[in-house]
Amino acid sequence: MVALIDCNSFYASCEQVFRPDLWGKPVVVLSNNDGCVIAANREAKALTDIPMFEPVFKIREQLKAHQVNVFSSNYAFYGEMSQRVMNILHQFSPQVEVYSIDESFIDVTGIISADATAYAAQIRDRVYRYTGLPVGVGVAKTKVLAKAANRIAKKFHRQLNTVYVIDTEEKRIKALKWLKVEDVWGIGRQHAKRLKSIGVHTAYEFTKLSAGWVRRHMTVVGLRIWDELNGRPRLGIQEMPKPKKGIGTAKSFGRPLEDLGLIEEACAYYISEVAEVLRAQKSCATFINVFLHTNRFSVKDAQYSNSITITLPVATNDTLRLIASAKKALYQIYKPGYRYKKVGVCLLGIVPQEFVQGNLFHPEKKNVQALMETFDRLNYKYGKAKVYSALCGNRKKEWQLIQEERGPRYTTRWDELAVIHTKKQPPA
DNA sequence: TCTGGGGTCCTAGGACCC
DNA sequence: TCTGGGGTCCTAGGACCC
């Protein structure tokens, strides 16, 4: 049996944990650059004129009218709260697969007692008690069914209290008949459209299609889902996260940029960020991909986008070498005269640091490892980007993303800790 | 004025090898 | 009339996830 634990409206819930004054009130969290709504709590979802993924500038009036509490995204904070939740889940099973920032699968085979619902409720209660975050728990024989159970748990939260177990054939059939085909985990827009066109509207109807049809039109991926819905496990619990195949970042600028100098600085800064992640997992990169594009939504701006992948002479995790290569790549795709909206970098061909193939003509610079370690130690101790390459420049204000409403980073900054005021000592 | 970011996996087709 | 068979590697594109 597998349990799926999923935090309710995770980002919005995080913002509410240390703000009791917001409990029961609508809260939304915005994407980077304060672009669109990417998370909304139950109260905000109830306001039908505030759809998810809607650009903020289009719904500013509605947000104001409903007195919605709006936050910029605060990933340092969400990441740390996620860590707390995942740590608690390890108390319930030795096998935990952290699937995303707000959900985990845990293997409860042989652990879950006769009363599976009570066990699931215990998970929910402990996470809430230790972190203040509400979660839903779905339990079933396969991951795809656990996902379905979780959806039922949340949909009928009043009756079920956000916990649901599919442990009998009757319950499985009932769940599948209720679940719309487009809501099956792994069936997206395209496949849902095709399935509906042949009269398949529910998960149950999907399971009644032939294996051959599913394989032909939805590849082996679809077939696995089909099996899982039929109660045959095909997706295992992936305890050890696979090493990443690429580490990238790409963020929109706060305003459009034409100047190559500024784009170079942003690019160098992004490289510094991803190189730090690379070193943290003790790897080196063999290729760098750099891409650049204008604002695709703008009708009046001329459009241009390009991307290039270059091979490094030697796989490396040296920020300075990576920046030098990325800059060369950027020069090859930059064309003057456009208003650029975004530059992105991606490190590829990731290999363990100890297996890097040397290059006779590009000897490793002396003391590079020591220098990078010093970089990372200082930045860990004194805060992000306290030490950086001069190639990142000092004009970050000109390109960095907009975050007007970011809340405190309660759990990762000493000067932003939550403060509790008592009645006797009013705030100074 | 203003429209997110970071990933995974699979397939088909082309280039190439012997 | 008829033009092999068995591979690998790479890339682009499509589909999906949170």
UniProtKB/TrEMBL annotation:
Pfam families per the UniProt record, alphabetical: DUF4113 (PF13438), IMS (PF00817), IMS_C (PF11799)
Record-annotated UmuC domain positions: 2-188
Keywords per UniProt: DNA damage, DNA repair, SOS mutagenesis, SOS response
SUPFAM superfamilies for this protein: DNA/RNA polymerases, Lesion bypass DNA polymerase (Y-family), little finger domain
Annotated GO biological process: DNA repair; error-prone translesion synthesis; SOS response
A GO cellular component annotation in the UniProt record: cytosol
GO molecular function: damaged DNA binding; DNA-directed DNA polymerase activity
Family the entry assigns: Belongs to the DNA polymerase type-Y family.
PANTHER family linked to this entry: DNA REPAIR POLYMERASE UMUC / TRANSFERASE FAMILY MEMBER, PROTEIN UMUC
Name of the protein in its database record: SOS mutagenesis and repair protein UmuC
Taxonomic classification: Bacteria, Pseudomonadati, Bacteroidota, Flavobacteriia, Flavobacteriales
